[in-house]
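Quick one:
INPUT:
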């Protein structure tokens, strides 16, 4: 499970938060998100991986990361950032170094 692996758990949590913020930002682009909820990404992960977001086997960590990152990249803000060469999220390595204060 990803959950006991604290850096991996925290990184997925970071990506989920990033996705939620990017999805909510769609409103500022004139796209109402009626029916959208913060739990949507968790339901999608459960549907795709057959397990709760934080209980996916650690062996599938990279798959979950790639999936959530792709969801971030598909948001309007994600596409806008890409066009302006602005990163949508930190890499796992960058995230871990930042968490360690390095």
């Amino acid at each position: 499970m990803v959950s006991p692996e604290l850096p991996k758990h925290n990184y997925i949590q970071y990506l989920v938060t990033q996705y939620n913020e990017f999805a909510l930002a769609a409103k500022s682009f004139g796209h109402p998100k009626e029916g959208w909820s913060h739990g949507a990404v968790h339901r999608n992960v459960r549907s795709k991986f057959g397990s709760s977001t934080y209980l996916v086997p650690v062996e599938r960590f990279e798959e979950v990361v790639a999936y959530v990152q792709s969801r971030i990249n598909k948001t309007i803000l994600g596409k806008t950032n890409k066009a302006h060469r602005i990163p949508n999220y930190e890499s796992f390595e960058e995230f871990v170094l930042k968490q360690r204060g390095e």
